[in-house]
Design brief:
The complex is a heterotrimer of chains A (123), B (480) and C (448). By secondary structure, chain A is of the alpha+beta class. Chain A contains 4 helices and 10 strands. Classes of the chains: A alpha+beta (123), B alpha/beta (480), C alpha/beta (448).
Chain lengths: 123, 480, 448
């Protein structure tokens, strides 16, 4: 399954028209110990690059932007009680929401894993 | 150490109340009463005194330790100010608001009026309101005044412009007044980037909020040009007075184009910081903004009597209960009349002298990202130490072990590993020399034994605390 | 001689420091300020010694009317203050410290504020409290802003019986935020419940009530809470902390947020400040709280300690997206509140509250005996009550002020058609003799 990234360090994995969304390992590392993840509401309709939720550590707070437009169909509620999963497994168990993708052609606005790796080197 | 609640014994009490000299009233209906007594402590007076005395000893404070917390102006708080404030304890604020009540309060109203006049002179403004209760509250009040000014003129304004080195309260206050924020980056010369500022300015900008000298401790030489550009777009200039301690008698914000100013009495005017407050944030304005000042506004009539204006329709209204943190005003007033003209000038001169002295003495050991003559504070970066894995916070904790309150660290946010030192004018050369020595020592330990810095502090009742656990568990109230 | 004796350097030390910096005069350090921008005038008078300063302050005090006998409240109350409050909060280790950013050397302030938060929770019945706000009026505004964030709605409904200053501050705070503030006009000095029901819809973020209210009336808002929650809004209750010695708690009534002014808890009247504002809420709302919050945690050795927590809500991290712009709070006065509550204790606060009510009921009976004076009877009261005089209260109050008596707050300035109404406050400090004196003087004033 291919993974796409935003410049703001969110990722999306696409399967059967559904995009699983989270933040990259790089972002999780930069934030430090995550203390809180504000998840979107199920049923919320989001636009690509609009605010989807937010994430906090002890000394920082960042918005999470939707890597793709669509409707939120599922959220990772475990993060409410165990936000540390984002640090332990940012790009897998630390997923935040599933989005029913409105328009797969928007993926062209994102970076592939390889491109994202190159992008990180420029920061 | 035990909490006061853990020292509690049922049935004990610390105060004997006066016996009642009136009949007991008929009981209130059950539906209006609480079902059980509030779980407050039950301790003897002596236990109480020991508890809080011992707690106080677990603090560093200006009276016990050098406290060079940048941006906070932790100067010595003269004791006579405490005595002066105590004189005013019995006066009820409502008295002044009763019909013909102002006549009973000529001393207190007159003092507030005089304080406003003196602050107006210091800042180059035309009138000052003492109502705002802290610096951030002053900022919010000031931006609301600006908003009222634009609305009265029919101006359509949407943005407040702040440099990226600004205090976090600036954008937060502007947002509370309904504005969106435009952030302008800092140029390599340490001031707001003039070219980017010019590009960012537009007719929808309501105000430009600046701290001058800024949070890097630098006075912006282009400030007049910035004001002129802002005014050409009918944007007003807001002065964050957090750093006023650097410039008293030297330059007045009003003379360089600022229209609205807030002053932190707890910083510049020697009133204590109280472990987090109270502060006071009087706001000064130019003539064109006077009609919008908060109510009640203290005015003087033709016969020298002080009155309260309470029904001005243009006013932004009330920003707090009464006349501000009055006790803090008393202290600031006493401070200003005691130091006087020359004293205040000397305060700024020696604050600037002290900061430059520390900067010169330490710049061989710590990176100075913007190396030029600073005003009342100097900003270093622990970037050299970072090469050894040592962060600004490690140096801060080492200083605690040596008996110094750490400088401000990680602010301003635009400086990596920032260490912001503000010695203030009240510190002696001997104190600063000893501090400088310890800072040099810290830089040496960073190279030879970084772990020692990671382990600090070792001399305190507790070591570094698990802040992640605190944030995740949110235990903010004793649960027993 | 140094003009400011708080600037300690000798001339020799100044020379040494200038040499170290590499400049020849202090003035050179001000070179970054362009010369054409320099101050041309500076008219502050010459300074003086601390003794002269203190004498000047005494002279200012003497310009106020002396020894006013207070029967006024309106948000600030003349209560007893045990001596320990001044002495312990007067320890300079407390009052010359600042915000406890460095927890290892600030455990005194941090633990005290944790104990304060606990006291506020226990007083109000709420789950979480912050470490103080500015005052009771701004706390009402902050609570309203919290509710706007939580609900995403844009309307605040306020009971007109809430302190007019709190309502004014609320309006000032919300004026620029595209929020509508709806006031429910009082019904005989109490909440008009029918009008509230009409005002409740899915645009309402919060309903703000006060207990006891500005008229002195005590109400049970439990049924209101159900209605408010039914509309998906939050109930904010502003309370007078001393009254909570006996009165039903905001949590007991189902409120989501409790606020109030802490002046009555060990803080002097001091012409209106400093006092402190408190805000406490249900646990689920903690991330939307404004201001500093202290949390318990441990160090590496497992020792208990206290830190500033949930700072990611605050302005120094979140800047314009912060829950509030507040930075400095009223920490020292919150500490005084804690020392007061710890000193008076669990039973003491209840006893003090009863004493207030007993004295106020006695005063009510004495004033009701004056010919032409009637008492507002629509609800029970705590230590404040409303009386109606046979003629406008303003003139009567002005008359009595000349006799050193602040007899009450005339309602005419704050409510229409209330020119004859007067709110009288009686705290535990007022003696029977003083109350009798008030009744006698009022009766005499009414005969004139």
């Amino acid at each position: 399954m291919s993974m796409y990234f935003t410049k703001e360090h969110e990722w999306v994995k696409v399967k059967d028209g559904i995009g699983a969304v989270g933040i990259s390992e790089h972002a999780a590392h930069e934030l430090g110990d995550v203390t809180f993840v504000e998840l979107p509401k199920i049923g919320a309709v989001v636009k690509q690059f609009a605010v989807l939720g937010s994430i906090e550590s002890v000394k920082a707070a960042s918005d999470i932007y939707a890597p793709i437009s669509g409707k939120v169909v599922k959220i990772n509620e475990i993060l409410n009680s165990s936000p540390e999963i984002v640090n332990e497994s940012a790009e897998d168990a630390g997923w935040m929401a599933w989005i029913e993708i409105a328009d797969e052609s928007e993926l062209k606005n994102l970076m592939t894993s390889e491109q994202y790796g190159e992008y990180l080197k420029t920061l | 150490m035990q909490l006061i609640y853990e020292k509690s014994t049922p049935g004990r009490n610390g105060v004997r109340l006066p016996a009642s000299d009136v009949p007991a009233a008929a009981a209130l209906p059950e539906s209006l009463l609480r079902t059980e007594a509030a779980g407050l402590p039950e301790v003897s007076e002596l236990d109480l005194v020991r508890h809080f005395t011992i707690l106080s000893q677990r603090n560093f404070s200006v009276d016990t330790n050098f406290y060079p917390l940048g941006s906070c102006t932790m100067k010595y708080n003269a004791k006579v100010l405490e005595n002066a404030a105590a004189l005013f304890a019995p006066f009820h604020p409502m008295t002044a608001l009763l019909p013909q009540g102002a006549a009973c309060c000529q001393g207190t109203l007159g003092m507030l009026y005089d304080l406003g006049q003196m602050l107006a002179d210091i800042t180059g403004m035309d009138e000052v309101t003492t109502q705002p209760l802290a610096g951030a509250h002053g900022e919010m009040t000031g931006i609301m005044l600006i908003s009222a000014y634009h609305k009265a003129k029919g101006n359509k304004k949407k943005y407040v412009l702040v440099p990226d080195s600004s205090h976090g309260t600036n954008p937060a206050s502007a947002a509370m007044a309904g504005y969106e924020i435009i952030t302008v980056p800092t140029a390599p010369y340490g001031d707001m980037d003039l070219e980017l500022f010019k590009k960012a300015m537009n007719s929808e900008v309501a105000a430009v909020m600046m701290t001058c000298p800024n949070t890097l401790g630098l006075f912006n030489p282009h400030i007049k040009e910035i004001s002129d550009i802002a005014h050409s777009h009918d944007a007003l200039m807001y002065y964050d007075g957090a750093n006023l301690n650097a410039i008293m008698g030297k330059v007045k914000p009003g003379d360089v184009g600022f229209d609205v100013v807030h002053v932190n009495l707890h910083k510049t005017f020697g009133t204590p910081h109280g472990g987090g407050g109270p502060g006071a944030g009087p706001v000064g304005v130019k003539k064109s903004l006077i009609p919008f000042l908060p109510q009640p506004r203290i005015v003087m009539d033709g016969e020298g009597q002080f009155l309260l204006e309470t029904a001005n329709q243009l006013s932004i209204g009330r920003t707090a209960n009464f006349f501000g943190n009055f006790g803090v005003m008393v202290k600031a007033y006493a401070y200003i009349i005691m130091l006087g003209r020359q004293g205040l000038i000397q305060v700024s001169e020696q604050a600037v002298l002290n900061a430059n002295y520390i900067k010169e003495k330490l710049k061989a050991y710590y990176d100075v990202p913007y190396d030029m003559t600073c005003m009342h504070e100097c900003v270093f970066s622990a970037s050299k130490q970072l090469a050894h894995g040592v962060h600004a916070i490690d140096i801060a904790k080492y200083l605690i072990d040596k008996g110094y309150h750490p400088p401000t660290v990680y602010f301003p946010m635009i400086v990596k590993e920032a260490i912001m030192i503000e010695p203030t004018e009240t510190e002696s050369k001997a104190t600063m020399d000893a501090f400088i020595q310890v800072m040099i020592e810290a830089a040496q330990v960073a190279e030879t034994d970084p772990q020692a810095l990671h382990d600090a502090p070792l001399t305190m009742p507790i070591g570094r605390l698990d802040e992640t656990k605190a944030a995740r568990e949110q235990n903010v109230c004793c649960q027993w | 001689m140094n003009e400011s004796h708080y600037c300690p350097h000798s001339p020799e030390e100044i020379s040494e420091m200038l040499a170290a910096i590499g400049v020849s005069s202090v003035e050179e350090l001000f070179a970054p300020i362009p010369s054409d921008l320099r101050a041309k005038t500076f008219n502050i008078p010459p300074g003086m010694s601390e003794f002269e300063t203190y004498a000047r302050m005494q002279a200012i005090v003497a310009d106020n009317s002396k020894s006013m006998l207070n029967f006024i409240g309106g948000g600030f109350y003349d209560h007893i203050i045990p001596s320990v409050v001044d002495h312990l909060s007067g320890r300079s280790e407390f009052y010359t410290a600042y915000t406890p950013y460095q927890p290892e050397c600030s455990q005194g302030t941090l633990q005290a504020l944790f104990e304060y938060q606990t006291a506020i929770c226990r007083l109000t019945g709420m789950d979480v409290s912050n470490a103080s706000l500015y005052d009771g009026a701004t706390a009402c505004a902050e609570a309203a802003m919290m509710a706007l964030r939580v609900t995403g709605r844009n309307r605040i409904v306020v009971d007109g019986c809430v302190n007019p200053f709190s309502r004014q501050v609320l309006k000032t705070y919300l004026y620029n935020l595209k929020v509508e503030v709806v006031e429910i006009a009082p019904l005989d000095g109490t909440l008009n419940r029918d009008e509230l029901a009409k005002a409740l819809d899915d645009s309402v973020a919060a309903v703000l009530v006060q207990n006891p209210n500005f008229f002195g009336c005590v109400e049970d808002f439990s049924a209101i809470a159900d209605q408010v929650h039914g509309a998906g809004a939050l109930l904010v209750a502003s309370v007078y902390p001393v009254s909570l010695g006996i009165l039903k708690t905001p949590a007991g009534m189902g409120a989501d947020i409790a606020v109030g002014d802490g002046q009555s808890l060990g803080n002097p009247l001091s012409f209106g400040g400093p006092s402190f504002g408190f805000i406490a809420a249900k646990k689920a709302l903690i991330r939307n709280m404004p201001g500093r919050i202290i949390g318990e945690t441990i160090d590496k050795q497992g020792r208990r300690g206290y830190v500033l927590t949930l700072q990611a809500r605050e302005q120094h991290i979140k800047r314009h997206k912060a829950t509030s712009n507040i930075c400095s709070n009223q920490g020292l006065y919150a500490l005084r509140g804690l020392i007061f509550l710890s000193s008076i204790g669990k039973q003491g606060l209840a006893e003090m509250a009863r004493l207030n009510r007993d004295k106020a009921e006695y005063a009510k009976a004495q004033l009701a005996d004056i010919p032409g004076v009637t008492v507002l009877q629509s609800a029970p009261t705590f230590n404040e009550f409303t009386v109606f005089l046979p003629r406008p209260a303003a003139a009567v109050v002005a008359d009595l002020l000349k006799h050193g008596l602040a007899a009450g707050v005339p309602l005419g300035d704050y409510y229409e058609d209330s020119a004859n109404a007067l709110v009288v406050t009686v705290t535990e400090k007022r003696t029977r003799k003083e109350i009798d004196h008030l009744a006698k003087e009022l009766e005499a004033a009414l005969c004139n």
